[in-house]
Amino acid sequence: MATDAGDAMPRFPAGFLWGVSTSAHQIEGAAGEREASVWDVFTAEPGRVKDGSTAAVACDHYHRYREDVALLAGLGVDAYRFSVSWPRVNSPGGLDFYDRLVDELCAAGVRPVPTLFHWDLPASLDWLRRDTAARFADYVSVVAGRLGDRVGTWITLNEPAEHTLLGHALGAHAPGRRLLFDALPVAHHQLLAHGLAVQALRAAGAGDIGIANSHGPTWAASGEPADLEAAGFYDTLLNRLFAEPILLGAYPDGLGELMPGDVAADLKVIAEPVDWYGVNYYAPTRVGAPGGADAEYGGLALPAELPFSVREIEGRPVTGFGWPVVPEGLTELLTTFRDRYGDRLPPVVITENGCSYEGLDDQDRIAYLDAHIRALHAALEAGVDVRGYFVWSLMDNFEWAEGCAQRFGLVHVDYETLERTPKASYHWFRDVLRAQR
Ligand code: BGC
Predict the structure, then answer these.
(1) Which residues constitute the domain of residue 396?
(2) Which regions in the chain score pLDDT beneath 70?
(3) Domain count of the chain?
(4) Which of 187, 197, 385, 399 has the fewest beta carbons under 10 Å from its own?
Protein backbone atom coordinates (compact mmCIF):
# COMPACT_ATOMS: atom_id res chain seq x y z
CA MET A 1 0.00 0.00 0.00
CA ALA A 2 1.33 3.47 -0.81
CA THR A 3 1.85 5.22 2.48
CA ASP A 4 3.59 8.11 4.14
CA ALA A 5 4.14 5.98 7.27
CA GLY A 6 7.51 6.96 8.66
CA ASP A 7 7.17 10.64 7.79
CA ALA A 8 6.43 12.73 10.85
CA MET A 9 2.71 12.81 11.59
CA PRO A 10 1.34 16.37 11.40
CA ARG A 11 0.51 17.93 14.73
CA PHE A 12 -3.08 18.03 15.92
CA PRO A 13 -4.36 20.90 18.07
CA ALA A 14 -3.76 20.83 21.83
CA GLY A 15 -6.65 19.11 23.57
CA PHE A 16 -7.44 16.87 20.57
CA LEU A 17 -8.91 13.68 22.02
CA TRP A 18 -7.19 10.42 21.09
CA GLY A 19 -8.87 7.15 21.91
CA VAL A 20 -9.87 3.62 21.04
CA SER A 21 -13.33 2.05 20.89
CA THR A 22 -15.03 -1.25 21.74
CA SER A 23 -18.58 -2.40 22.41
CA ALA A 24 -20.08 -4.50 25.18
CA HIS A 25 -21.46 -7.41 23.17
CA GLN A 26 -18.26 -7.72 21.17
CA ILE A 27 -15.85 -7.99 24.11
CA GLU A 28 -17.53 -8.61 27.45
CA GLY A 29 -18.59 -12.25 27.34
CA ALA A 30 -20.15 -13.30 30.68
CA ALA A 31 -23.38 -13.75 28.76
CA GLY A 32 -24.71 -16.00 31.53
CA GLU A 33 -24.50 -13.12 33.98
CA ARG A 34 -27.04 -10.95 32.18
CA GLU A 35 -30.38 -11.29 30.44
CA ALA A 36 -30.39 -12.12 26.74
CA SER A 37 -30.09 -9.60 23.95
CA VAL A 38 -31.38 -9.85 20.39
CA TRP A 39 -27.80 -10.79 19.42
CA ASP A 40 -27.80 -13.85 21.70
CA VAL A 41 -31.05 -15.02 20.10
CA PHE A 42 -29.78 -14.36 16.57
CA THR A 43 -26.42 -16.04 17.16
CA ALA A 44 -28.17 -19.18 18.40
CA GLU A 45 -29.95 -19.56 15.05
CA PRO A 46 -27.93 -21.89 12.78
CA GLY A 47 -26.13 -20.21 9.92
CA ARG A 48 -26.46 -16.63 11.17
CA VAL A 49 -22.81 -16.19 12.22
CA LYS A 50 -20.32 -17.24 9.54
CA ASP A 51 -17.84 -19.19 11.66
CA GLY A 52 -20.49 -20.38 14.10
CA SER A 53 -18.85 -18.59 17.02
CA THR A 54 -20.83 -16.86 19.75
CA ALA A 55 -20.13 -13.92 22.04
CA ALA A 56 -20.83 -15.97 25.17
CA VAL A 57 -17.19 -15.53 26.22
CA ALA A 58 -15.82 -13.18 23.52
CA CYS A 59 -12.72 -11.51 25.07
CA ASP A 60 -14.01 -12.15 28.60
CA HIS A 61 -13.50 -8.46 29.23
CA TYR A 62 -16.14 -8.64 31.97
CA HIS A 63 -13.66 -10.58 34.08
CA ARG A 64 -10.45 -9.14 32.63
CA TYR A 65 -11.26 -5.44 32.48
CA ARG A 66 -8.36 -4.53 34.77
CA GLU A 67 -5.89 -6.06 32.34
CA ASP A 68 -7.62 -4.22 29.47
CA VAL A 69 -7.51 -0.88 31.26
CA ALA A 70 -3.79 -1.48 31.83
CA LEU A 71 -3.45 -1.95 28.05
CA LEU A 72 -5.24 1.38 27.53
CA ALA A 73 -2.93 3.09 30.00
CA GLY A 74 0.10 1.56 28.26
CA LEU A 75 -1.19 2.83 24.94
CA GLY A 76 -1.45 6.33 26.37
CA VAL A 77 -4.92 7.18 25.01
CA ASP A 78 -6.83 10.11 26.47
CA ALA A 79 -10.18 8.34 26.23
CA TYR A 80 -11.81 4.95 25.94
CA ARG A 81 -15.11 4.50 24.14
CA PHE A 82 -16.95 1.40 25.37
CA SER A 83 -20.63 0.55 25.45
CA VAL A 84 -22.98 -0.14 28.29
CA SER A 85 -25.03 -3.28 27.78
CA TRP A 86 -28.71 -2.55 28.40
CA PRO A 87 -29.43 -6.26 29.12
CA ARG A 88 -26.64 -6.26 31.70
CA VAL A 89 -27.94 -3.12 33.39
CA ASN A 90 -31.33 -4.89 33.57
CA SER A 91 -29.67 -7.77 35.42
CA PRO A 92 -28.69 -7.98 39.09
CA GLY A 93 -25.25 -6.50 39.70
CA GLY A 94 -24.94 -5.40 36.07
CA LEU A 95 -24.48 -1.71 36.71
CA ASP A 96 -21.86 -2.52 39.34
CA PHE A 97 -19.61 -3.75 36.53
CA TYR A 98 -19.65 -0.36 34.79
CA ASP A 99 -19.09 1.31 38.13
CA ARG A 100 -15.91 -0.74 38.58
CA LEU A 101 -14.83 -0.18 34.99
CA VAL A 102 -15.30 3.60 35.24
CA ASP A 103 -13.38 3.69 38.53
CA GLU A 104 -10.55 1.72 36.98
CA LEU A 105 -10.43 4.06 33.95
CA CYS A 106 -10.44 7.18 36.13
CA ALA A 107 -7.65 5.76 38.29
CA ALA A 108 -5.63 5.11 35.10
CA GLY A 109 -6.24 8.67 33.87
CA VAL A 110 -8.32 7.52 30.88
CA ARG A 111 -11.56 9.39 30.18
CA PRO A 112 -14.55 7.01 30.07
CA VAL A 113 -16.78 7.59 27.01
CA PRO A 114 -19.75 5.23 27.25
CA THR A 115 -22.07 4.50 24.34
CA LEU A 116 -25.52 3.72 25.70
CA PHE A 117 -26.67 1.48 22.86
CA HIS A 118 -24.44 -0.55 20.56
CA TRP A 119 -26.97 -2.98 19.01
CA ASP A 120 -27.46 -5.41 21.96
CA LEU A 121 -31.12 -4.65 22.56
CA PRO A 122 -32.76 -6.67 25.37
CA ALA A 123 -34.40 -9.65 23.65
CA SER A 124 -37.79 -8.67 25.07
CA LEU A 125 -37.74 -5.32 23.23
CA ASP A 126 -38.22 -4.37 19.60
CA TRP A 127 -37.32 -1.15 17.75
CA LEU A 128 -40.42 -1.55 15.61
CA ARG A 129 -42.33 -0.55 18.74
CA ARG A 130 -42.40 3.12 19.63
CA ASP A 131 -42.32 2.56 23.39
CA THR A 132 -38.79 1.12 23.08
CA ALA A 133 -37.60 4.73 22.73
CA ALA A 134 -39.18 5.70 26.06
CA ARG A 135 -37.80 2.55 27.71
CA PHE A 136 -34.36 3.52 26.43
CA ALA A 137 -34.63 6.96 28.04
CA ASP A 138 -35.58 5.33 31.37
CA TYR A 139 -32.53 3.06 31.18
CA VAL A 140 -30.32 6.03 30.25
CA SER A 141 -31.51 7.90 33.35
CA VAL A 142 -30.56 4.94 35.52
CA VAL A 143 -27.07 4.71 34.00
CA ALA A 144 -26.50 8.48 34.19
CA GLY A 145 -27.67 8.49 37.82
CA ARG A 146 -25.07 5.89 38.70
CA LEU A 147 -22.08 6.90 36.56
CA GLY A 148 -22.69 10.61 36.01
CA ASP A 149 -20.43 11.68 38.88
CA ARG A 150 -17.41 10.31 36.97
CA VAL A 151 -18.50 10.25 33.32
CA GLY A 152 -18.29 13.61 31.56
CA THR A 153 -18.81 12.51 27.93
CA TRP A 154 -21.69 10.43 26.59
CA ILE A 155 -22.72 8.76 23.32
CA THR A 156 -26.39 7.90 22.89
CA LEU A 157 -26.47 5.38 20.02
CA ASN A 158 -24.02 3.59 17.79
CA GLU A 159 -24.84 3.52 14.08
CA PRO A 160 -28.63 3.42 13.97
CA ALA A 161 -28.15 3.27 10.17
CA GLU A 162 -26.38 -0.10 10.21
CA HIS A 163 -28.67 -1.44 12.92
CA THR A 164 -31.67 -0.53 10.76
CA LEU A 165 -30.20 -1.61 7.44
CA LEU A 166 -28.37 -4.79 8.40
CA GLY A 167 -30.61 -5.83 11.29
CA HIS A 168 -34.09 -5.00 10.06
CA ALA A 169 -33.99 -4.30 6.31
CA LEU A 170 -31.54 -6.94 5.03
CA GLY A 171 -31.51 -9.52 7.83
CA ALA A 172 -27.74 -9.95 8.10
CA HIS A 173 -27.59 -8.79 11.73
CA ALA A 174 -29.85 -9.27 14.74
CA PRO A 175 -32.78 -9.40 14.90
CA GLY A 176 -32.52 -10.81 11.38
CA ARG A 177 -35.51 -9.22 9.69
CA ARG A 178 -35.74 -8.59 5.94
CA LEU A 179 -38.28 -5.81 5.90
CA LEU A 180 -36.61 -3.61 3.28
CA PHE A 181 -38.34 -0.21 3.41
CA ASP A 182 -40.79 -1.39 6.04
CA ALA A 183 -37.78 -1.11 8.37
CA LEU A 184 -38.02 2.71 8.31
CA PRO A 185 -39.89 2.89 11.66
CA VAL A 186 -36.82 1.28 13.25
CA ALA A 187 -34.79 4.29 12.11
CA HIS A 188 -37.37 6.72 13.44
CA HIS A 189 -37.70 5.02 16.81
CA GLN A 190 -33.94 4.94 17.30
CA LEU A 191 -33.68 8.62 16.38
CA LEU A 192 -36.48 9.36 18.83
CA ALA A 193 -34.64 7.30 21.44
CA HIS A 194 -31.55 9.40 20.78
CA GLY A 195 -33.46 12.66 21.35
CA LEU A 196 -35.15 11.35 24.51
CA ALA A 197 -31.76 10.14 25.77
CA VAL A 198 -30.24 13.59 25.24
CA GLN A 199 -33.09 15.03 27.32
CA ALA A 200 -32.64 12.37 30.01
CA LEU A 201 -28.89 12.99 30.18
CA ARG A 202 -29.37 16.75 30.43
CA ALA A 203 -31.97 16.23 33.17
CA ALA A 204 -29.35 14.19 35.03
CA GLY A 205 -26.92 17.11 34.74
CA ALA A 206 -24.78 15.54 32.01
CA GLY A 207 -23.06 17.51 29.25
CA ASP A 208 -20.77 16.73 26.32
CA ILE A 209 -23.26 14.49 24.55
CA GLY A 210 -22.93 13.07 21.04
CA ILE A 211 -24.04 10.21 18.80
CA ALA A 212 -21.85 7.81 16.75
CA ASN A 213 -23.30 7.67 13.24
CA SER A 214 -21.86 5.67 10.38
CA HIS A 215 -21.18 7.76 7.30
CA GLY A 216 -19.21 7.55 4.10
CA PRO A 217 -19.05 9.29 0.74
CA THR A 218 -21.30 7.82 -1.93
CA TRP A 219 -19.66 7.67 -5.33
CA ALA A 220 -21.86 7.27 -8.38
CA ALA A 221 -20.83 4.40 -10.67
CA SER A 222 -20.87 6.81 -13.63
CA GLY A 223 -22.19 10.20 -14.70
CA GLU A 224 -25.27 8.56 -16.24
CA PRO A 225 -28.53 9.94 -14.79
CA ALA A 226 -29.67 6.50 -13.58
CA ASP A 227 -26.43 5.99 -11.64
CA LEU A 228 -26.48 9.52 -10.24
CA GLU A 229 -30.04 9.06 -9.10
CA ALA A 230 -29.27 5.72 -7.44
CA ALA A 231 -26.21 7.18 -5.70
CA GLY A 232 -28.22 10.15 -4.47
CA PHE A 233 -30.80 7.78 -3.05
CA TYR A 234 -28.17 5.72 -1.24
CA ASP A 235 -26.57 8.89 0.15
CA THR A 236 -29.96 9.87 1.51
CA LEU A 237 -30.40 6.49 3.18
CA LEU A 238 -26.95 6.18 4.73
CA ASN A 239 -26.00 9.77 5.43
CA ARG A 240 -28.85 12.26 5.31
CA LEU A 241 -31.58 10.11 6.93
CA PHE A 242 -29.56 9.84 10.13
CA ALA A 243 -27.81 13.22 10.15
CA GLU A 244 -30.55 15.65 9.16
CA PRO A 245 -33.24 14.90 11.75
CA ILE A 246 -30.56 15.54 14.39
CA LEU A 247 -28.77 18.48 12.79
CA LEU A 248 -31.63 20.17 10.90
CA GLY A 249 -34.75 18.83 12.64
CA ALA A 250 -36.08 17.49 9.30
CA TYR A 251 -36.13 14.29 7.29
CA PRO A 252 -34.67 14.53 3.79
CA ASP A 253 -36.60 14.08 0.56
CA GLY A 254 -40.06 13.55 2.04
CA LEU A 255 -38.97 10.48 4.04
CA GLY A 256 -40.75 11.93 7.06
CA GLU A 257 -44.06 11.04 5.41
CA LEU A 258 -43.12 7.37 5.64
CA MET A 259 -42.39 7.54 9.37
CA PRO A 260 -44.86 6.53 12.09
CA GLY A 261 -46.39 8.73 14.78
CA ASP A 262 -46.49 12.50 15.15
CA VAL A 263 -43.34 13.05 13.14
CA ALA A 264 -43.29 16.86 13.48
CA ALA A 265 -43.43 16.62 17.28
CA ASP A 266 -40.87 13.80 17.33
CA LEU A 267 -38.45 15.81 15.19
CA LYS A 268 -38.38 18.52 17.86
CA VAL A 269 -37.13 15.89 20.32
CA ILE A 270 -34.73 14.31 17.83
CA ALA A 271 -33.17 17.73 17.11
CA GLU A 272 -32.35 18.32 20.77
CA PRO A 273 -28.92 19.95 20.42
CA VAL A 274 -25.87 17.72 20.77
CA ASP A 275 -22.47 19.00 21.88
CA TRP A 276 -20.59 17.15 19.18
CA TYR A 277 -21.28 14.81 16.30
CA GLY A 278 -19.62 11.39 16.10
CA VAL A 279 -18.70 9.86 12.75
CA ASN A 280 -17.70 6.22 12.21
CA TYR A 281 -15.80 6.03 8.92
CA TYR A 282 -14.58 2.92 7.14
CA ALA A 283 -14.87 3.41 3.35
CA PRO A 284 -16.89 5.10 0.61
CA THR A 285 -19.50 3.16 -1.34
CA ARG A 286 -19.77 3.10 -5.12
CA VAL A 287 -23.40 2.97 -6.12
CA GLY A 288 -25.15 2.56 -9.42
CA ALA A 289 -28.56 1.87 -10.90
CA PRO A 290 -30.20 -1.41 -9.83
CA GLY A 291 -28.99 -4.66 -11.30
CA GLY A 292 -25.26 -3.95 -11.46
CA ALA A 293 -23.09 -7.00 -11.79
CA ASP A 294 -21.53 -6.73 -8.30
CA ALA A 295 -24.83 -6.00 -6.57
CA GLU A 296 -23.96 -6.89 -3.02
CA TYR A 297 -23.37 -5.10 0.24
CA GLY A 298 -20.55 -6.26 2.50
CA GLY A 299 -20.70 -9.72 0.98
CA LEU A 300 -24.47 -9.79 1.18
CA ALA A 301 -26.56 -10.21 -1.96
CA LEU A 302 -28.89 -7.23 -2.21
CA PRO A 303 -32.54 -7.88 -3.07
CA ALA A 304 -33.24 -7.02 -6.71
CA GLU A 305 -36.11 -4.71 -5.82
CA LEU A 306 -33.82 -2.10 -4.23
CA PRO A 307 -33.47 1.09 -6.28
CA PHE A 308 -29.67 0.91 -6.27
CA SER A 309 -26.80 -1.55 -6.52
CA VAL A 310 -23.40 -1.47 -4.84
CA ARG A 311 -20.36 -1.72 -7.12
CA GLU A 312 -16.76 -2.55 -6.48
CA ILE A 313 -14.30 0.30 -5.90
CA GLU A 314 -11.49 -0.78 -8.17
CA GLY A 315 -7.78 -0.17 -7.99
CA ARG A 316 -7.54 0.03 -4.21
CA PRO A 317 -5.98 -2.24 -1.64
CA VAL A 318 -8.60 -4.00 0.43
CA THR A 319 -8.69 -4.96 4.10
CA GLY A 320 -9.14 -8.52 5.34
CA PHE A 321 -12.87 -7.87 5.13
CA GLY A 322 -12.53 -6.89 1.47
CA TRP A 323 -13.30 -3.24 2.19
CA PRO A 324 -11.42 -0.75 -0.03
CA VAL A 325 -8.81 1.43 1.63
CA VAL A 326 -9.71 5.04 0.76
CA PRO A 327 -8.24 7.47 3.29
CA GLU A 328 -9.12 10.59 1.32
CA GLY A 329 -12.76 9.50 1.59
CA LEU A 330 -12.56 10.67 5.20
CA THR A 331 -11.45 14.16 4.16
CA GLU A 332 -14.17 14.23 1.49
CA LEU A 333 -16.84 13.10 3.93
CA LEU A 334 -15.98 15.73 6.52
CA THR A 335 -15.68 18.63 4.08
CA THR A 336 -18.97 17.55 2.45
CA PHE A 337 -20.70 17.57 5.84
CA ARG A 338 -19.22 20.99 6.67
CA ASP A 339 -20.41 22.35 3.30
CA ARG A 340 -23.86 20.77 3.63
CA TYR A 341 -24.62 21.69 7.20
CA GLY A 342 -22.45 24.75 7.91
CA ASP A 343 -23.05 26.11 11.41
CA ARG A 344 -25.59 23.40 12.15
CA LEU A 345 -22.77 20.85 12.30
CA PRO A 346 -21.29 20.83 15.80
CA PRO A 347 -17.65 19.85 16.37
CA VAL A 348 -16.97 16.40 14.93
CA VAL A 349 -15.31 13.43 16.62
CA ILE A 350 -14.29 10.35 14.64
CA THR A 351 -15.76 7.74 16.96
CA GLU A 352 -14.57 4.75 14.88
CA ASN A 353 -12.02 4.13 12.16
CA GLY A 354 -10.05 0.96 11.59
CA CYS A 355 -9.59 -2.20 9.58
CA SER A 356 -9.41 -5.98 9.85
CA TYR A 357 -6.13 -7.72 9.07
CA GLU A 358 -4.51 -10.90 10.33
CA GLY A 359 -1.20 -11.16 12.17
CA LEU A 360 0.78 -9.58 14.96
CA ASP A 361 3.13 -7.68 12.68
CA ASP A 362 0.22 -5.76 11.16
CA GLN A 363 1.97 -3.31 8.89
CA ASP A 364 -1.17 -3.03 6.74
CA ARG A 365 -3.11 -1.75 9.75
CA ILE A 366 -0.36 0.74 10.52
CA ALA A 367 -0.47 1.99 6.93
CA TYR A 368 -4.28 2.22 7.06
CA LEU A 369 -4.35 4.17 10.31
CA ASP A 370 -1.43 6.38 9.34
CA ALA A 371 -3.11 7.38 6.09
CA HIS A 372 -6.50 7.99 7.75
CA ILE A 373 -5.04 10.14 10.52
CA ARG A 374 -3.30 12.23 7.85
CA ALA A 375 -6.59 12.46 5.92
CA LEU A 376 -8.25 13.66 9.10
CA HIS A 377 -5.59 16.30 9.50
CA ALA A 378 -6.28 17.42 5.94
CA ALA A 379 -9.93 17.95 6.93
CA LEU A 380 -8.79 20.06 9.89
CA GLU A 381 -6.64 22.13 7.58
CA ALA A 382 -9.63 22.56 5.28
CA GLY A 383 -11.42 24.15 8.23
CA VAL A 384 -13.52 21.28 9.61
CA ASP A 385 -13.78 21.46 13.39
CA VAL A 386 -12.62 17.95 14.36
CA ARG A 387 -11.95 17.34 18.05
CA GLY A 388 -11.08 13.67 18.38
CA TYR A 389 -10.20 10.33 16.78
CA PHE A 390 -10.95 6.83 18.09
CA VAL A 391 -9.49 3.67 16.54
CA TRP A 392 -11.77 0.68 16.12
CA SER A 393 -10.73 -1.34 18.04
CA LEU A 394 -8.65 -1.74 21.18
CA MET A 395 -8.63 -5.50 20.68
CA ASP A 396 -9.84 -8.26 18.39
CA ASN A 397 -13.44 -9.06 19.20
CA PHE A 398 -16.70 -10.71 18.13
CA GLU A 399 -17.27 -9.13 14.72
CA TRP A 400 -21.05 -9.65 14.54
CA ALA A 401 -22.13 -11.90 11.64
CA GLU A 402 -18.46 -12.55 10.82
CA GLY A 403 -17.91 -14.10 14.25
CA CYS A 404 -14.29 -14.14 15.33
CA ALA A 405 -12.95 -14.28 11.77
CA GLN A 406 -12.29 -10.56 11.27
CA ARG A 407 -9.68 -9.04 13.57
CA PHE A 408 -9.85 -5.25 14.04
CA GLY A 409 -7.71 -5.00 17.19
CA LEU A 410 -4.53 -3.15 18.06
CA VAL A 411 -4.25 -6.02 20.54
CA HIS A 412 -4.48 -9.65 19.45
CA VAL A 413 -6.80 -11.92 21.44
CA ASP A 414 -6.26 -15.67 21.49
CA TYR A 415 -9.83 -16.93 21.81
CA GLU A 416 -8.66 -20.23 23.31
CA THR A 417 -6.47 -18.87 26.10
CA LEU A 418 -7.86 -15.28 26.11
CA GLU A 419 -4.30 -14.05 26.17
CA ARG A 420 -3.84 -10.47 24.93
CA THR A 421 -0.81 -9.62 22.82
CA PRO A 422 -0.20 -6.06 21.60
CA LYS A 423 0.36 -5.99 17.84
CA ALA A 424 2.88 -3.81 15.99
CA SER A 425 0.03 -1.30 15.45
CA TYR A 426 -0.42 -0.92 19.23
CA HIS A 427 3.21 0.13 19.62
CA TRP A 428 2.97 2.36 16.54
CA PHE A 429 -0.18 4.14 17.81
CA ARG A 430 1.43 4.59 21.25
CA ASP A 431 4.38 6.31 19.57
CA VAL A 432 2.05 8.51 17.46
CA LEU A 433 0.30 9.62 20.65
CA ARG A 434 3.58 10.27 22.47
CA ALA A 435 4.78 12.47 19.61
CA GLN A 436 1.57 14.53 19.84
CA ARG A 437 2.10 15.39 23.51
C1 BGC B 1 -19.55 -1.06 14.34
C2 BGC B 1 -18.62 -1.98 15.09
C3 BGC B 1 -17.99 -2.97 14.12
C4 BGC B 1 -17.18 -2.19 13.13
C5 BGC B 1 -16.47 -3.06 12.10
C6 BGC B 1 -19.01 -0.59 13.02
O7 BGC B 1 -20.02 -0.66 12.08
O8 BGC B 1 -19.94 0.01 15.15
O9 BGC B 1 -19.36 -2.62 16.09
O10 BGC B 1 -17.25 -3.94 14.76
O11 BGC B 1 -18.00 -1.32 12.41
O12 BGC B 1 -17.36 -3.74 11.30
Answers:
(1) 5-436
(2) 1-6, 292-299
(3) 1
(4) 385
